[in-house]
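Handout, section B. The chain below has 199 residues.
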Amino acid sequence: MLSHAPFTRYIFVLLTLCLMQSPLAHAALIEFQPDSVTANTGDSISIDLLIRNLGNDSLGAFDISVGFDTSALSFTGYSLGNSLGSVPLLEAIDASAGAMGGAVNVAEVSLLSALDLDTLQPASFVLATLNFNVINLTGGAVTQLSVLSGPVLGDAFGAPIEVTGLGSASIASIPVPGTLVLLSAAIFGWLTVKRRHSV
């Protein structure tokens, strides 16, 4: 009768060899810069979508959606960074879907080699710049931009890159009480100076 011990040992050795041949896990952080903005109704704001912590990998493609509150912000456009190549020079393809209700999608695929991407990409770089108009943000209100779940990242060879962190950005209005205090102080100062000159 055949023993199961040699067969089990064989499978264990085979699995260990397979795992040693698989590529190391990729990881990346997706963040916003700045991650906190002060703005009021009528203001235009621009926020960069950044990637960092790629290690020795180069980013060859991404597909990311960012959620926002349509009652507070109006999306006005985006521009892609140049770290995956130039879209006008046909070094990369802009595959973005743009605004989709309460989200904006940016996506790009590089046509450059891994060596070219290594040269173009620093440790942290801008994937895209998102532009918004503030349409309703008053009285100390705060709204958020956040990377929606399921961003897709790929390295220069098409292997998936794991996302280990998703950032968010807050857009806050100048609190009304603070504005009233400043306005009151200015009026009080003006009245004090006026009274001294009239005496």
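Note. Confidence is low (pLDDT under 50) at residues 7-22. Compare this with the example in section A.
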